[in-house]
Amino acid sequence: MVTAGRSWIIAGGITLIALALRSTYLDQVQLHPLILVPVAEARLYVESATAMAAGGAVSAVQAPFYTWLLAGLDARPEAARWVQVVLGSLSCALVWAVGRMAFPPAIALVAALLAAAYGPLIFFTGELLPATTAVFLSLTFLTAIAWSARQPDPWRLTVAGVLLGLTSACSPSALVLVPLFAAWIARQVPGRLPVSGFTAGALAAA
Asked: Which residues contact 73 (CB under 8 A, 6 or more apart)?
């Protein structure tokens, strides 16, 4: 049995391990040509965020939320990458949080440690692409929906819906989850308010 206090300590340890691995990686590749000069899709996000930060027109991109994030950082690649290091590290703690709600603590811990050391997740923290942010938002949504499932409440489900909407604004394919989870909520939680709040929150944030 893992107490709440011990769970927070484990989550902190997982975050620190993930942070160390991602920080080391970013420090080692910071002078790589593809890091110094964004190319392909990464360049499009940087250019769109630069235009948004300057108050100009924004070009169409697949993940508008990621563009907003970059624009909020004044389209500074180095700042964006360090934010992604933090988000990627917190994602590993969220794997632990979601995992321990559905599986024994040992399995949740192994999953979180594997996420912390998983090469592609570490790699994408250095790329100016929405992958790291999308993973973080997805896991935040899963944590919220798992929490809501334990104690169903319209407001909690609305928050979960907003998080799913933000996830879809970063990864449009997540939109297919809206009707699936709405149907699940309709079956599990009585009344129309919970499913309406979830759906409205998801579509408003998308």
From this structure: 49, 79, 80, 83
Across the chain, the runs of DSSP E, i.e. the strands, are none
Mean pLDDT of the chain: 84
Burial of 110 (0-12, 13-18, 19+ CB in 10 A): middle
Q: pLDDT tens, 22-56?
A: 999 888 877 766 666 666 777 877 777 777 777 76
The pLDDT-based confidence of 114 (bands split at 50, 70, 90) is very high
Length of the chain: 206
Displacement of CA 132 from its chain's centroid (Å): 6
Q: Are 59 and 51 in contact (CB under 8 A)?
A: yes
Alpha carbons 38 and 175: distance in angstroms, whole number: 28
Tell me how far apart the alpha carbons of residues 17 and 22 are, in angstroms, rounded to a whole number: 9
For helices 77-102 and 4-29, the axis angle rounded to 10 degrees is 150
Instruction: Choose between 2 and 112: higher pLDDT.
Output: 112
Token couple for 146: 């798992």
Whether residue 123 contacts residue 22, with contact meaning beta carbons closer than 8 Å, is answered with no
Could you report the per-residue pLDDT of 157-189, keeping only the tens digit for each? 888 889 998 898 888 888 888 888 888 888 877
